[in-house]
Amino acid sequence: MLLGPALGLSAVLFSLGVAGVLLRRNAIVLFMCIELMLNAVNLSFVALAQLHGASGYVMVFFVMTVAAAEAAVGLAIIIGIFRHKQTVDLGNINLLRG
Amino acid sequence: MTEVVFYIFAVVAVVSATLCILQRNPVSAALWLVSTMFSLAAIYVLLNAQFIAAIQVLVYAGAIMVLFLFVIMLLNLGHSETDLRGPSTIAATLVIVGLLGIELFALLQYTPRKLASEFSQWPTFTDPATVFVAGQVTQQESAARGVVGAVAAPLFQIYLIPFEITSILLLVALVGAVVLAKRNV
Amino acid sequence: MMASMIWLAVALPLLGFLINGGLALRRPQAKDAVSVVGVGVLVASFVVSAAVFLELRAHPPHQPIVVNLWRWLPVGSLQIDMGFQVDQLSAVMLLVVTGVGSLIHLFSVGYMKADPGYARYFAYLNLFVVFMLVLVLGSSFPVMFIGWEGVGLCSYLLIGFWFSEKANADAGKKAFIVNRIGDFGFLVAMFLLWYSLGTLTFTGMVTKAPALLPAGGAAVTAITLFLFLGCTGKSAQIPLYTWLPDAMAGPTPVSALIHAATMVTAGVYLVIRTNVLFALAPFSSTIVAGIGALTALFAATIGLKQYDIKRVLAYSTVSQLGYMFLGVGTGAYASGLFHLATHAFFKALLFLGAGSVIHSMHHAYHATHAHADAQDMRNMGGLKQYMPITFWLMLIATLAIAGIPPFSGFFSKDEILAAAFARGETAPIFLLFYAMGVLAALLTAFYMARLMAMTFLGSNRTGERERAHLHDAPWVMTGPLVVLGILSAVGGVLNLPPFLGGGAALEHWIEPVTAPAAAFFRLQMPHGNTELFLVGAAVLVGLVGLIAGWKATLRRPIPTAADAPADAGFARVLYRKYYIDEIYDAVIVRPLVWLSRFVLWKGVDQGVVDGAAVNGTAKLSRGLGWLGSRLQTGQVGVYVVLFLVGALWILHSVVR
Prior knowledge:
The structure holds three protein chains of three kinds.
Chain A: H1 3-23, H2 27-52, H3 55-85
Chain B: H1 2-22, H2 26-46, H3 50-75, H4 87-107, H5 112-119, H6 128-131, H7 133-145, H8 147-157, H9 160-181
Helix pairs in contact in B: 1-2, 2-3, 7-8
Chain C: H1 6-26, H2 31-58, E1 65-75, E2 78-86, H3 88-111, H4 118-137, H5 141-159, H6 166-197, H7 202-212, H8 218-234, H9 243-246, H10 252-261, H11 266-273, H12 275-280, H13 282-303, H14 309-330, H15 333-368, H16 388-402, H17 408-423, H18 429-456, H19 464-467, H20 475-490, H21 505-509, H22 511-518, H23 528-554, H24 570-575, H25 580-631, H26 636-655
Antiparallel strand pairs in C: 1-2
Helix pairs in contact in C: 1-2, 1-4, 2-3, 2-4, 3-4, 3-10, 3-15, 3-20, 4-5, 5-6, 6-8, 8-11, 8-13, 10-15, 11-15, 13-14, 13-18, 14-15, 14-17, 14-18, 15-16, 15-17, 15-20, 16-17, 16-18, 16-20, 17-18, 17-23, 18-23
């Protein structure tokens, strides 16, 4: 069984995704790092399905669906912001400053 | 043998992911992410989840990443001078990611054997196969009905309602994306 | 039942205060109305007091009659009523206060006639009588304390009556603050009493104290010592007497009423009222007697070298109060009360007489536009020919205070000294007190003779042109003097000792009140030859003092105040009152002021309260707000970091 190594890989990919979210300024690349994190989670679900049954595959199915919906809506929002501010640099988008 | 193949694809995935998060050009980053997804699909096959591998390539790499690329090119971003954040953020990142890694790797101690001995009622050593029955059932079903059937059966029976709700969710996302992105004329 | 109408005696002066106060605010020039109201309520109050006294005389009660007006403090197990206690002791005090008070009010009509603050004066004076009556009539310690504090307040108001002069206002403040120290003693004693006995009424104290307080124990000694601290403040004994000489800054009738006849006797009254406690604590009684004797001697020495006529009388008051405390400290409560009454007569007479003299001197200087001090005896002299009535009346008072028979002071002072001598047989220290008392009697006679000689005898030093304006006071002022003179002369009948044929009336009269103390200690007064010997010694001492004072004063011509050379040597120390005020200032007042300014004000108030507490909390809020604002940057990156920190924390708690 490849459970151990697969989960280890999932952990590494997830950490890389977190690092990317923290480090990048471009909103679209940030989104891509989030997708990376979701992929890592999918990997862990698939790896654990060997133990816990087909529910793991079903979860992966749903994650992918929701990720698709989220990507669509999120990118639409980014396009809307770009129209206003002519930039997707997250350092400049701080209108909700307290 | 599968181990070796697994490790090769794992290395490819990690390297692609690292390059993805470090690339300045957003197009390059997207393409490296596609590479990561492909390696993951290969790993799914090795984990006996062939249907999921196919879905990964079709939906994730084929639809979602293409959408990303469309948007990048639509906005005509080019590459900016400084895309990574300042040194304080890098330091914070290292700290957080380090801690995260430690926490996650702490979870790796739970091998199936240990999980089985913790879940089961019997105090002595237990065979994981007798505790985690569901996994065995799936493998038998895959053998009997094929991989798609193994996924479809619970999807349309036990998880029917979430399935239907997800379809509505997709509809809402569709309408929302159109409304948000269209030009205000 | 007249006793139940006792509240009328208090309500009448209160009404007078309200009316006069209203007139003072609205129509201060209505002097006739003020006079009628001010004197009228006092006389009416005296009539009520006399009626109560006569009723008590007809049917002497064995238990005090307590008239409760309303429930004042119902707090758990502490139930205090606003009540008045009518018994033999309070009846005597009532008569003294209202009687002498009426005479002084009448005198004030003439003395203060030209003063613009006439209505205000009578308002304050009426208010004082109200509080004094509450003090002597109070049925419990808290009610008495109301009166105690109230008379202190009125004393402050009246001492600083002419407050536009800073010295007068300062004197008023000094009186109030020094009194406060005594009040602290009274309060602590009240707390201890409540703690030990569970009751604060006088009747309750009489029943419970012998049962609950072990005789000579620490509790009762502490209570009585703290009560005595209150007495030293109110009755100007060592160490809290320094306010009384300064209090002469007020109008002379005020000095007569408050600082001779009534307020300062409150301490003596308190000791007599709580005689059961003092009898249970012989150590405290000895302290009381000792301080009394010491004060009597000490003040008498200072009086030898004062030039202001009122100052001499002030130190004389302190000294005579010492005698009263010597009396009650010895256990001779009746003697102390007797001296209280006779002292009220002759000291009020002396003060009012001095007031007439000062009034006349002022008039004279005013007419010639001179600026000399009208109260300095060195500016007087030979006034006998100009003010004969005043002279003869003050002579009666002088003979009384020196203890010459048959005047009243002889009987009361002799009794006190005899009591001290008698007590000396069992407790030798009382013989020392007796000796001090005798020496003080000698000095008393000496300085009183000096006062009379400097003021009335010899040649007149006031000045050629002023002499024409010196004359006796109008009858509204001299009339009360006559009445007081008669009382000073014949007041001895109140308590004539048996060997002279009397029945010791006062002593028997207040026996029901002093019975609780008598149960513990019975004082054996001397009889027969010892008694005659003591009487003879007292009279001899008085005569010697008078003659010596007269001769010593008139031996050489006295320079006027302006020409007088400064005193030197020990005389200077006496004139400067042993520098006690300066010592108090350096040792007590200055360190306290320093403490208040630098520690409590700058340190605690500005630093801790303002800085740390008030401004500090504001700074803390601002700091927290600043911290909050740093979290709300509007930048996604920051939010993501925080989000991940939180997620990491949850993960950590789950993994463990």
